[in-house]
Amino acid sequence: MKKWVLLSLIVIFFLAVFMRLFPLTRYAIWGSDAGEYYSITNQLISDGYVSTDYDGWGFGYPYFPGMFYFTGAAHFLTGLDLLFAMIVIIPVVASISVFIVFIISRMLFKNDGAALLASGFLAVAMPHVFATSHPMPGSLGDMLLLSSLLFLLASLRNNKFIPLLILSTIALIITHHLSSYFLFIMIFGGFFLVGMLGCQEKKQLRLYWAFLVFFFTVLVLYWMILASRFAEGVVSSAFDVPFWVLFIVGYVVLFLVYVLIVLRRRISWSFKSKFPEPRKQIVLYIILLGILFFVLGYMALVKVPGTNINLTPETALLFSPLIIILAFTSAGAGYLKIYKNGVSVYGWIVALVISLLVAIVTSNRVLFTYRHPQYFMAPLALAIGIGVAMMIYLYWGERRQNKALAVGLVVVLLGLTSLSAYPPRGVMGGFQEGTSEEDMQAVAWAKYSLEDGATVATDHRMSSMVFGFAGQNATWDAAIDTLHGSSYEECKDEIDNISTPSGEKHIDYVILDDDIKDGVALLQWENAEPMRTQAWEKFEKWPFVKLYEANGVEVYGVVG
After folding, report:
1. Domain range spanning residue 142?
2. Is the pLDDT of residue 118 over 70?
3. Which long-range contacts (C-beta less than 8 Å, at least 24 apart) are formed by 245-252?
4. pLDDT in tens, 47-77
5. Omega of the bond leading into 305 within 30 degrees of 0 (cis)
């Protein structure tokens, strides 16, 4: 590797780390579910195992303990504080994805410039930065997903990488269910496309298919045996069919697709791509740019498809640099086809698009619309990298002065894109992901001042903090009337009997802060609606008694 390439890649990695740790310069905790993850990891360290007897909101978390074991091991091996190990090490590890994308791009295209552009885009693109900045299983899962894609491509060339492919895939399965799902459909999409187009040799196709069968078998067995409650409660509900039906259908589809590809290979024709016409690529870029801005405008003026969340009109301006870069996918798509394994990337993208459309049409609450963009970024980065690199070469030539100007423009565009990595709350439906030092002081007070086993009504984010760091029961997304009701009479029934992950409870305390008043985060697919003045003023009257007030945070007791 050339020195300037290595130096550039190292700079990109540190940029990725900075971007993902930036929220910690403003908040004590970043990530609305961080309290749950801390609670599970802390229990692992104390008891030596992860218990599935769990009263938190994410009942499926203990069934996928990969991140908790990783964080716990980092705590033991380094002596770092557990919370620090979780909120810092996980985003740093997630940043390794820029190295992986660089290697994949270099393997596919043998172009240093394209590989650096791909990794640079992934380092600053909002959907990937925002998601992997959270100390959550999905951040580690994202890195493992990309590792598996890398080892799969490497295994198609050399069988020595198969053990690494198997290890990374098993690690992913026990770490994050959603990343496992996305990896499977991406690999399936790539296998189907290269098989039908005749872009892969028979030996490589057999390895492709054999890995798919292995992956699906291990995934299903893990979910059926070790995570059966999760499979029944989440996976089955996502598709409204019993899990065993999905199991059988999966094997049938794998078999039929393999037979279809075998029959297809009996036809002598194979796909051969022509080198794209530069002018046509420009036209396609303009068309895609228009489509993307139309979609962005729809989300700003109407709603995010598949949710009831609408963005603010200012979003269009904030995300314009990101949209301008994403539109280069059209250029990259033309060049992907001329590389042997570039068609696989096509398959990855197509599979993700189909999944997103299914989520939108069905309003699926598991394959949530907001959960898809993160996984689009890596394959799109590969297409963008080769697309931009080829257009610079074709339109700017080999002259250093021209190249320097083009690279400078790209760097500026990436810099502007980084500004949208942490958009205003309105872009995220009014949800607040950061918890302030003042909030955590109130949580510490609740830990030592409230009786054990108390039930605290608050929004989802503060429920996670109260549950994870104070050890109290919380209402999560259930206290709708308590937080939004204009009077005690409107929420009395809910206070007396509210359904929580820990069972039917009586609300003993209420915690509010300025962020909650500005937007109560409850259901993930609903806007976080601000509290009306009457809603929070009712807590100043009987039967509520203010027990704590400091720096905009208030704790009320419920009398009786």
Report:
1. 3-428
2. yes
3. 247/220, 250/216, 250/220, 251/216
4. 999 998 898 998 889 999 999 999 999 999 9
5. no
Q: Distance between CA atoms of 137 and 180, rounded to whole angstroms?
A: 11
170 and 219: one domain? yes
Shared domain check, 166 and 92? yes
Does the pTM exceed 0.85? yes
Task: Give the integer Cα–Cα distance in Å for 293 and 311.
Answer: 14
Predicted local distance difference test score (pLDDT) of residue 374: 95
Using the structure block, give the residue that is written with the tokens 């295994």: 155
Residue with tokens 């050890």: 471
Contacts of 142 (CB under 8 A, 6+ apart): 94, 97, 128, 131, 132, 179, 374, 375
Residue 93 pairs in a beta bridge with none
- Higher-scoring residue by pLDDT: 266, 545: 545
Give CA–CA dist 462/202, Å, rounded: 54
Per-residue confidence (pLDDT) for residue 308, from 0 to 100: 64
Residue listed under structure tokens 């919370």: 83
Looking at residue 365, what is its pLDDT?
67
Same domain, 19 and 163: yes
Residues across the chain:
560
- To which H or E segment does residue 515 belong? helix 514-518
Tell me: do 481 and 393 sit in the same domain. no
Q: Tokens 């999560």 belong to which residue?
A: 476
For residues 389 and 200, give the distance between their C-alpha atoms in angstroms, rounded to a whole number: 25
> What pLDDT was estimated at residue 329?
92
The reply to whether 95 and 154 lie within a common domain is yes
pLDDT of residue 240: 72
Question: Do residues 421 and 457 both lie within one domain?
Answer: no
Q: What does the block give as tokens for 179?
A: 């990343």
Two structure tokens written together for 79: 């002596």
Same domain, 548 and 442: yes
Among 366, 397, 428, which residue terminates a domain? 428
374: left (phi over 0), alpha (psi -120 to 50) or beta: alpha
User: What does the pLDDT look like over 81-99, one tens digit per residue?
Assistant: 999 999 999 999 999 999 9
Most distant CA atoms of the chain, gap in Å: 82
For residues 518 and 403, the model is more confident at: 518
* Distances from the Cα of 84 to the Cα of 80, 98, 107, 494, 532, angstroms: 7, 23, 35, 37, 37
**What integer pLDDT is reported at residue 351 of this predicted model?**
96
Domain count, the chain: 2
**Which sign does the torsion angle of CA 420, 423, 427, 428 carry?**
positive
Q: What is the pLDDT of residues 322-368, one digit of tens each?
A: 999 999 998 888 888 788 788 899 999 999 999 998 888 877 667 77
Residues 376 and 244 in one domain: yes
Q: How far is CA 308 from CA 33, 216, 424, 516, in A?
A: 21, 33, 18, 19
Beta bridge partner(s), residue 128: none
| More confident of the two residues 274 and 398 | 274
Which of these three, 380, 402, 428, is where a domain ends?
428
